[in-house]
Model the fold of this input.
Amino acid sequence: MAESVGTTQDAGDDATRRDFIHIAAGAAAVGAGVMAAWPLINQMNPAADTLALASIEFDLTKVQQGQQVVIKWQGKPVFVRYRTPKEIQEAVSTPLSALKDPQTDSDRVKAGHTQYLVVIGSCTHLGCVPTFGAGDFGGWFCPCHGSHYDTSGRIRKGPAPKNLVVPTYDYVSDTRVKIG
Done:
C-alpha cells in the first residue's frame, strides 16, 4: 500500500510541476510580447525636443532697429525682425495686386507692434532658409531657387507659392513675445 501512496504523490507532484511550467511559459510569452510591442508604442509619443519647445518666449530688447535675430522653435528657424520705419512704409505701400500671395502688412504683424515682424524662416518652396538683405525687395532671398520676399515676408518673385509663414504668437508684455 505504501507503493500506491507514493505513486499518487508522484502523480500529484507531476501535475503541480506541469502547472508551474505552463504558468511560467505563459508569463515569459506575455513578457516577450510586451518587450516586442514597447518600441512600437513608444515611437508614437511626441519627440522630447518638440515638447520642450511647444512655446517659447523671446525678449525683444535683444533686437536693435534694422536687425534680425534667428531663434529656434519646434526645430524650425524663426526670424524676429525689428523693422525700420522705411521698411514698414515699403511694406504698407505695396499694392496687393503686386503680390503672388496677397496679404496686407497689417495682417502679418500685431497692432501696436508693427515694427516687429515674426516669421518662420523657411522658404515656402522647398524649405530652404532664406537670407536677409539679398533680395530685390529689401527682404529675404532664398539662394536655393531664387525666391524673393519683401520686408513683410511676402513672396514677390520666384518659385515659392506662399508668403513666409507667421507663427501663432502673442505679446506677453511690450518687450516679450510668446511664440506658439
User: Anything to note?
Assistant: The beta strands are 56-59, 68-73, 76-82, 116-120, 131-132, 138-142, 147-150, 155-157, 169-171, 176-179. The two ends are 85 Å apart (CA to CA). Residues 2-42 form the longest helix (41 residues).
